[in-house]
TrEMBL record:
The keyword Membrane applies. The chain crosses the membrane at residues 18-38, 44-66, 78-102. It comes from the Bacteria. It comes from Methylophilus flavus. The lineage of its organism: Bacteria, Pseudomonadati, Pseudomonadota, Betaproteobacteria, Nitrosomonadales. This is Potassium channel family protein. Residues 125-247 form the RCK N-terminal domain. SUPFAM superfamilies: NAD(P)-binding Rossmann-fold domains, Voltage-gated potassium channels.
Amino acid sequence: MNLNQIIFLILRRMRAPLLMVIISYAIALIGFVLIPGADDHGQAYHLSFFDAFYILSYTATTIGFGEIPYPFTGHQRMWMTFSIYFTVIAWFYAIGAIIALFQEATLKQAIKTARFQRDVCNLREPFYLICGYGETGSELVRALDRNELRVVVLEIAPERINDLEMTDYQFYVPHLCADAKLSEVLLYAGIKNPMCRGVAALTDDDHANLAISVAIKLIKPELPVLARVENDVVAANMASFGTDHIINPYKIFGEHLAMRLNSLGTYLLHEWLTRAPGDAIAPPAAIPKGKWIACGFGRFGKSVVNSLQNGAMDVTIIEADPQGTQCENCIVGSGVESHILQEAGIEHAIGIVAGTDNDINNLAIVMTAQEVNPKLFVIIRKNKRHNDPLFDHFNADITMQPSDVIAHTCLSYMVSPMLAEFLANARHQTNAWANAVIAQLVSKLGEQVPDTWDITIEGEMAFAVCSLMQQGLQPTLRHLVMSPSGKRHEMPVVPLMLVRGDQKSMLPELSTPLQMGDKILCCGMDQAKSIQRYVMHDIKTLHYIVTGTEMPETWIGRWLKS
């Protein structure tokens, strides 16, 4: 909504009050002009329109001044008395209408929308549009903000917008309380802005996410879309419209669980590179093999049971609604009853999965099971973030929260376009390879989650690299991780992948010569990232790192050196 529309809305609401003020002024003005007065000689005279308007101005506004140019006659004073009450009543009505207008939800929304559009248009940095600021959206916004990526948020629930406004982010987050399913709202949010790098549809309604994905692909097909989905039919519909990344948290958790069963090092590498920078990750415990009990055979339960069975586990299923979940071979029950767990063989089990959609039931299932078998390995599903204190106190071996899974998956696509590609290739490597990579990263970067970013050897950002190549010098990967200080030591940066044309090199050697068009995925500390960007842009600094000598500043010096 633009400024002209807001002005039109204000004028439409103020039409009656303004007309009343104008009519009251006109009546009072005409009366002052028509009613004769008396000058200091007793002669009749009439006020001019200007004098009448001047008197009315300080009378109607209750300022008060006096009777000019001569004392009023009785008729004039009677009309003055009438004009005071008449115009003041009109002013009271107008002021009341103005107060009511600015309390009106429609105008407030129009002003917020106009301010939101202005904030989005003023963004001069790449940004992502996040549709939905629930548990998933808030986690993703926090992670993106810590990765120094700008974000725009659409959320339909006012209380969630209030939560956003009270959260302290390092960058201002433009936000609007509106329905992201509406194409007009998506246009307000800047999907046609050249700085928009992608859209994440993360509402808790699959059909709303589908509508957002379809609208984006119809309005701007080349814009990447990440969409949360739990229903397979909706997911297929999204795929038919070309949604770039369809994220099913239960399917992804099942894949991660299988990765943790079969390749613990690869799982840890994945977790380490997709969490928010600065987080600490405890080494995951190995999942024991043997008899398992799974309570709940919904979307989450099916994914976990499939992964466990593929890992040669013996799984007994407990399900309260076998027909609804299409569970053909299961024990009927919720799992909170002790006799149901004993029927499933809880005494001889080595692990239990509490995977219902009710957090309290999941906690009750595990507590009941541990009374019989306290050594159980516990996988528990947490549905709502506000239950964090309960789950933190419980301290399960694996706690799955859909919002965390979705946020980490989105982060791997958003923070660095090459990161998701690296992680996909890492899944095809051996567990020993993943462990070696983790050891190298920890030794160089420490145990906290590092920042990840990608660079391309072209354009303004790599101006210094390209300039030195044109001068006949040959920068290497090592030069991009060197500190420009006098000792020229290596910074806490590790190149994870080098893409050159169709070739991909995992953990490339630092001695690798750089070429135009190379794309490099790096991870390291945030300060090192800033220094690296400066080095790639400043030709004098990079010349010193490559050659060990200062670059002459004048053309005479450069001629003499040549």
